[in-house]
Amino acid sequence: MENILRPLIVIGGSVLLTLIIGWATDRLLRKADDRHGETPLWGLLRRARVPYQLVLCAALLRASYHEADLLPEHRVAVGRVLTLVLIGTTAWLAIRIAAAIVETSYSRYARVHRDAARVRRVRTQVTLIMRVVSAVVGVVAVAAMLLTFPAFRAAGASLLASAGILGIVAGVAAQSTLSNMFAGFQIAFGDMVRLGDTVVVDGEWGTVEEITLTFLTVRTWDERRITMPVSYFTAKAFENWSRGGAQMTGTVFLHVDHSAPMEKMRERLRDILRACPAWDGRDYGLVVTDSTPSTMEVRALVTAKDADDLWTVRVTVREELIRWLADQHPYALPRVNAADAALPPGYPAPGRIPARRAHQHDHQPAVRPERP
Questions:
Q1: CA 146, CA 159: separation in Å to the nearest integer?
Q2: Percentage with pLDDT > 90 across the chain
Q3: Where are the alpha helices (DSSP H) in the chain?
Q4: Looking only at Cα atoms, what is the longest distance across the chain?
């Protein structure tokens, strides 16, 4: 009977104590979250209750397993498994706590600063910092797990002795990966490109959706995803439309007839922009920029708060101006003249020879005399 009750008491007591401590901690965090609603720290820490309870349970079981007297022939293996679980859950809990602290710091910064560009820059840096912290914690956890095995502890001295050679070999083998990692740090802290920036790379226009230590993802306007190494942005030129502010100026070109009513077109452009919600009201204009024998080129200048709204304004202006010209001033649209051109006064009609030229033609000899 004792062989049955002892394991049940030890294991059941550990699990029950874990649930009680976890419930009490969650209640305290919930009260702190209600009392300090201006900071999301306590609410974010509540998300770590699962790894927190696993750490408690693994620690209690690891400390009291010898008292349970369960599977004595496998005591070493069970103890090692519990140690591995404890290390893994501790790493998980550390990552959750670090994420909560970093996210709280970013939320406070975003709430105080209204500059969208600076907020996106900090967001990019926070994201990469969390990835680095997660990688470091994961590596340390894996190393700690390996050191629990005696074979790895015995090989530790030889591994440390050959660490220099292995580091050189690994550096040469992973040269591109390391260059991308350093490029990721350069992008994060050099403020070259941020999450949410509108960029043009290889002729593709899109928004930066994800930045990691090795690659960067751009979401194009047609919902495609372009993934490229971050070293691309440190080695090649690219357009960043969000650099220094998201406001943009765009143009709309139209080809119209030389008789187009320019003043009325300017008034119509003003009315179209006033009715367009995407126009930010900063500036507009309409001028003639070029002329050909059959048409003249008209440029409409418009502004918007970002690239998406600028696209909406441009297509709206182009469509409405063409529709207005077709309905109200159809003569102003380009056309091909099929009639004969009007000749100046006194110029002979086509097919007729002037009298003077005809008289000269009649007195010319039929055959030119040969030279002696």
A1: 13
A2: 13
A3: 2-35, 41-46, 49-68, 75-112, 116-147, 150-154, 156-161, 163-173, 175-190, 231-235, 262-274, 307-328, 355-363
A4: 150
* Residue 138 token pair: 């994961």
Q: Is the pLDDT of residue 160 over 60?
A: no
Confidence category of residue 371, pLDDT binned at 50, 70, 90: very low
Residue pair 214/181 in contact by the 8 Å Cβ criterion: yes
**Res 316 pLDDT > 90:** yes
The reported pTM is 0.47
Question: Between 14 and 181, whose confidence is greater?
Answer: 14
Q: Which of 210, 198, 207 has its CA nearest to residue 239? A: 198
Per DSSP, the residues of 13-49 read HHHHHHHHHHHHHHHHHHHHHHH-TT--HHHHHHTTH
Alpha carbon of residue 308 to chain centroid = 14
CA atoms of 159 and 290, how far apart (whole Å): 74
Sign of CA dihedral 175, 178, 184, 187: negative
Give the angle subtended at the CA of 18 by the CAs of 13 and 21, to the nearest 5°: 120
What gap in Å lies between CA 59 and CA 82, rounded to an integer? 8
- Give me the mean pLDDT over the 330-356 stretch: 64
Q: Do 334 and 256 form a contact (C-beta atoms < 8 A)?
A: yes
**Does the pLDDT at position 337 exceed 90?**
no
Handedness of CA 300, 305, 306, 312 (dihedral sign): negative
Place of tokens 């030129």: 237
Distance CA 185, CA 87 (A): 29
**Do residues 84 and 27 touch, judged by C-beta distance below 8 A?**
no
